[in-house]
Amino acid sequence: MAETWSGGCQCGAVRYRFTAKPGGAHICHCRMCQKAFGGFYAPLVGGPRDTFEITRGELGIFLSSDQAERGFCARCGTPLTFAYRDGNWMSVSIGSLDNPEAFPPVDQHGVESRLSWVNDLGHLPDRQSTEAEAPDTAAFIKSTNHQHPDHDTDRWPQAVGPGQSQKTK
Predict the structure, then answer these.
(1) Mean pLDDT, the chain, integer
(2) What is the pLDDT of residue 159?
(3) Residue 16 is inside which H or E element, if any?
(4) Cα–Cα distance, 157 to 166 (Å, whole number)
(5) Which of the chain's termini has less CB crowding within 10 Å, N or C?
């Protein structure tokens, strides 16, 4: 079986994969990307459109300009894709990949809109995770987690009863 690189939204309604390893990992600071991601920048990686496919669900599409479209999960709102409408390249949000660690950004785009303090983020003090600072809260979150796991599943969500969390097969 050929190697694939898959990912999807937080709720699992939309899943996708590349049949060739994505490349060109970067972060984009343009104002459109900041707003589309609700963040300081958009981390993106991609590949030729013919190596990309949706394997579950359907993308919601927002035309952020007459040239660019942004795909997202209409159910949970996760930003998933960016593409020029007449282009042959499909980019995905690095964080939506099942293994985002494999795609470190190699450059930055749209730097004219970069927030003045973004480059200092790596120097901020580290804090412990919720598990360390509030173990009871972390345990409750884990027991009621509705987030899709970082791998493909036969179906999602799996039917659950009241008070039970969703689990994969």
Answers:
(1) 90
(2) 52
(3) strand 15-18
(4) 6
(5) N
